[in-house]
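Page 42, continued from yesterday. The earlier attempt failed because a stray header line got pasted into the input along with the sequence. Redoing it now with the clean sequence only.
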Amino acid sequence: MLKYDLVVIGGGPAGMAAALEAKKQGVKKIIILERAATLGGILEQCIHTGFGLHYFGEELSGPEYAYRFIKELEETDIEVKVDTMVTDILTGNVVVATNNTDGIIEINATAIILAMGCRERPRGALDIPGSRASGIMTAGTAQKYVNIDGYIPGKKIVILGSGDIGLIMARRMTLEGAKVEMVCELMPYSGGLTRNIVQCLDDLGIPLKLSCTVIKTHGIERLEGVTIANVDENRRVIPGTEQYVECDTLMLSVGLIPENELTRMAGIIIDPVTNGAVVDEYRQTSRPGIFACGNVLQVHDLVDYVTAESQLAGVGAAKYILSKSKQRGIKYIATKADKGVRYVVPQNINSATDQDVKLYFRVTDVYKNAKIVVTCGDKVLYSKKKIKLCPGEMEYVIIKAEEIHGLDKKDIVVKVEV
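This time it went through. Structure tokens are written below.
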């Protein structure tokens, strides 16, 4: 059995940032296991710019952002195994993996960082009536066809869902000469960043239909069209609003699902809202020595935030590996989402934490001139007015460590006041 101080599962932006930070913190023997043939994760097919504005202070494409971390990795002694699938995490933090070169391998790890990313929600999760005609695919699949393989998936496009990948593909397909008929969004607000709505739809004259969805697909061998309809506040179809739209391609941008099969197999507690692990401020899960970061923990809107969170997990893993006490006897304060807030990460905070804590969260609706308020019992820890809040953009607040130290056992609550 191989022995490593730290095993990082996933070689995308989260895994690379976490491994590099752990190395900087003094962890000696680190290995990254990546199931794809290359490092970089989804960034490899994201050739548009907009990455790195927060972290590097400049605008980069996805491959450029990934390459900076790949290059930094190459300058260290961190080991990397690509084309390697992790199949299980056993008792005692033993990682089981397989590849064509080594066969089945077992790695005894002092600590593990989960950085497997997320996947797109497929058509099968939507129950849209219609045949299995070609031309129906996720926006990410279409992005790979165009940016990696060099194929145009269609000429007349309807996009269902206004997540960032769908918005970006609306622009990409238009630039490739296709006609994007519309973007339909079930909710009364977009699920993407405001900048993507402006740059990818408004600037190109592509209509965004809110409170609208696809209720049927048409075509046997190849998609010929879709029927769309408006929905009410309960997301039920409004009779009489049906409309047929001719198209040869339906792209789905209807949400992302964290890749947490391994997490569940390891017996780690999952947050039912984020579909990621329940973690503390250093991103340690309910299983000692196992940490989670990036989109496997919560779906981020910016890769810069993924990097920052993953570095935090790298610090946490290093503390665990280098500490003889293994952080026993910690007393946690729970965080809770209240009015207008869907979830809060981290879900637990060490009452004696040695650093200020960033609470990440998403709101449930679009709010204008609303106030973000964080309380613990009767004590107000944070209060700030925001011009606009929307579900498509992640928010965060910073709570000072000294304020946390003086709290009692009550929950830290994040809410929106209108």
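Notes: The chain has three domains: 1-120+256-327, 122-254, 329-418.
Reminder to self: strip header lines before submitting.
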